[in-house]
Amino acid sequence: MAGLDTDTQGVLLARVVDAIIPGDALFPSASRVGVSEKLLERGFRTIGPDFAGRLDRALGLTDAASDEAIAAALAAWEARDPAGFEDMLTIVYLSYYEALPVKSAIRALGHDYHDTPQPGGYRMSAFDPANPHENPQHRRGAYVPTDDVRPVDWSALGDLGKRVG
Fold first, then answer.
1. CA angle, 153 as apex, 147 and 154 as ends, to 5°?
2. For residues 12 and 8, what is the distance between their CA atoms, to the nearest angstrom?
3. CA dist., res. 41 & res. 4, Å (int)
4. What is the tens place of the pLDDT at every residue in 73-107?
5. Is the C-alpha dihedral spanning 10, 15, 18, 20 positive or negative?
6. Contact 44, 52 (CB under 8 A)
7. Span 20-30, pLDDT tens digits
């Protein structure tokens, strides 16, 4: 991919992300929702300015790589450098599942799926303090009912309380 600086290399990167998330009749492919561009942008921002070069070296593909060669390069990278592969894969998945067409496909399956959980949130049952899954029983920390919550007295902190609080 040699630095990913040509249209041909962009096509190759699109084929790489499509090898990871190919899409189907309901879900679009990764490249169709812009994952290739997001991968480069977020990789640059979160992993470093040499992300495109690292991606190029990790895959070692030419522009004429077959689909089989792409799959083999991804498998070899995962075996050789699981942490680096996971960094890339995380960016691909997060970029894919935030795309509006993907959210629409999830909703089309009948799932309650908001663009963001707030301000509408998701339907939840009322908190049950008798349920050990909702109120841990290990007794590290403590549950304080909302009506019993009181402000902390900062007066003993002197000037620190004024600077922080």
1. 140
2. 6
3. 12
4. 999 999 999 999 999 999 999 999 999 999 999 99
5. negative
6. yes
7. 999 999 999 99
C-alpha neighbours within 13 Å on the C-beta side of residue 119:
0
Question: Is 164 inside any structural domain?
Answer: no
Within a domain: 147: no
Answer yes or no: are the C-beta atoms of 114 and 49 closer than 8 Å: no
**Number of Cβ within a 10 Å radius of residue 38:** 19
Flag whether 153 is in a domain: no
Domain count of the chain? 1
Both structure tokens of 55? 């991606």
- Let me know if residue 142 belongs to a domain: no
How far from chain centre, in Å, is Cα 114?
A: 16
The answer to whether the beta carbons of residues 84 and 54 sit under 8 Å apart is yes
The pair of three-digit structure tokens given for residue 73, joined into one six-digit string: 């390069």
Q: What's the domain range around 56? A: 7-108
Q: Closest Cα to residue 92, out of 25, 9, 13, 4?
A: 13
Q: d(Cα 123, Cα 126) in Å, to the nearest integer? A: 10
Cα 120 from Cα 76, distance rounded (Å)? 43
Q: What pLDDT band is residue 2 in, cutting at 50, 70 and 90?
A: very low
Cα gap 82→66, rounded to integer Å? 23
